[in-house]
Design a protein that fits this description.
Aromatic amino acid aminotransferase, three-stranded antiparallel beta sheet, pyridoxal phosphate, aminotransferase, seven-stranded mixed beta sheet, about 375 residues, binds pyridoxal-5'-phosphate, EC 2.6.1.57, Aminotrans_II_pyridoxalP_BS, globular, 12 strands
Length: about 375
């Protein structure tokens, strides 16, 4: 092959027979995670993100950390964990940070499940649960929600078998919205054998304003088989940076930590997480605005005839059944991107008032057929 000075040689591979390397034979059974769509020029209410960008103090911390990205991050996220320890009022040994709480869900399944063990969860719920269970060679066991979109904790407890190792309780539940009450959770946890780990997925914890709320971190300190998952992606507005945390019994935290992809919590994410906690009430005030809009949007959708469950998160659920796809594409036509679960319903993130008005205009036009 002739090589001209300054140009790399072009190598052409040719095979008479093409063979693919062997991969797992069960991959076809693992669905891919479907992210919310981003459509240029449209209002995006599909991924439960916050509309406003990071606070100036958080953006400054990220910029400062950017100057140091030639170095590997602290593999233990030590400074973030100790800031969380102070913030949550629990020891550092009961906390581990992860590359988003979804990574911690995956580490948790890997840490507690042997191949063939069962992972229980209400359904619909967070669509990552069945995927990560299968990735870990575990068996996903969905338990249908009640008709009003609440988790059926009695049915979940009834579904525990000798093979069950892990139960995800998503509260508030994504995508339907309701939260479990403390009394319901206590009755449930009292029924679950202690050898089974219960993971309280509190990705939307900061939006809860219910009467008898669950505090997953407190539960995870009080029970030997309970862990809590929280994230900086939703209320704290850091979805693009990927950082969340898990709290629970120290031994379990150590086991979950062993499953981590080394250095997966970046130095930018660690610095931003600390800055969010340092920002104190500022971020909590933003959640109050979303909560007020949540009530307004839900009421308006109910007026339009939708049976919207009471949501404790930053989204609402429209149980449209077979009309879900039609509603979703109608909204897309009005440049509002929602999240469609075909045949079940549509989840709509609560954005700022202008965005929410766009959604409500589209929903009204759906009724009038315009
Ligand atoms: C968004 C979400 C998460 C994941 O958040 P990360 O961005 O990975 O921290 C986890 N659980 C539920 C239920 C969610 O909706």
């Amino acid at each position: 092959m002739r090589k001209t000075a300054g140009q790399p040689a072009v190598i052409r591979w040719s095979y008479s027979v093409r063979m693919s390397p062997d991969v797992r034979t069960d991959l076809d059974a693992i669905p891919s995670y479907v992210p919310g769509a981003t459509v240029p020029g449209a209002v995006k209410l599909a991924s439960n993100e916050t509309t406003a960008g990071p606070l100036p103090s958080v953006a400054a911390a990220i910029a400062d950390a950017a100057a140091g990205v030639n170095r590997y991050p602290d593999i233990t996220a030590g400074a973030l964990v100790s800031r969380l320890s102070e913030f949550l009022g629990i020891p550092s040994r009961n906390i581990t940070a992860g590359c988003g709480s979804v990574a911690l869900c995956q580490q948790l399944v890997q840490a507690v499940c042997a191949p063939g063990d069962e992972v229980l969860y209400g359904w619909r719920s967070f669509e990552a649960y069945p995927i990560i269970a299968r990735i870990a060679h575990a068996v996903p066991v969905p338990v249908p929600n009640r008709a009003d979109g609440t988790l059926d904790l009695d049915a979940i407890a009834d579904a525990v078998t000798g093979r069950t190792r892990l139960i995800f309780v998503c509260t508030p539940n994504n995508p339907t919205g309701p939260a479990v009450s403390h009394a319901e959770l206590t009755a449930f946890l009292d029924r679950v054998p202690e050898r089974v780990t219960v993971a309280l997925d509190e990705a939307y914890y900061e939006y809860v304003r219910s009467e008898d709320p669950v505090d997953g971190v407190a539960e995870s300190m009080a029970r030997p088989n309970v862990v809590a998952l929280r994230t900086f992606s939703k209320a704290y507005g850091l979805a693009g940076l990927r950082v969340g945390y898990l709290t629970g019994p120290a031994d379990l935290i150590t086991s979950v930590g062993k499953m981590v992809v080394p250095f997966s919590v970046s130095s930018l994410a660690q610095a931003a997480g600390i800055a969010c906690l340092d920002a104190g009430d500022e971020l909590r005030a933003r959640t109050d605005a979303v909560v007020a809009e949540r009530t307004r949007v839900r009421d308006a959708l109910i007026d339009l005839g939708h049976a919207v469950p009471e949501s404790q998160a930053n989204f609402v659920w429209l149980p449209l059944g077979d009309a879900a796809a039609e509603f979703d594409s109608h909204c897309r036509g009005h440049l509002v991107v929602t999240r469609c679960f075909a045949g079940h319903g549509v989840r709509v993130t609560i954005g700022d008032p202008v965005e929410n008005d766009r959604l409500l205009d589209a929903a009204r036009a759906f009724v009038t057929g315009t």
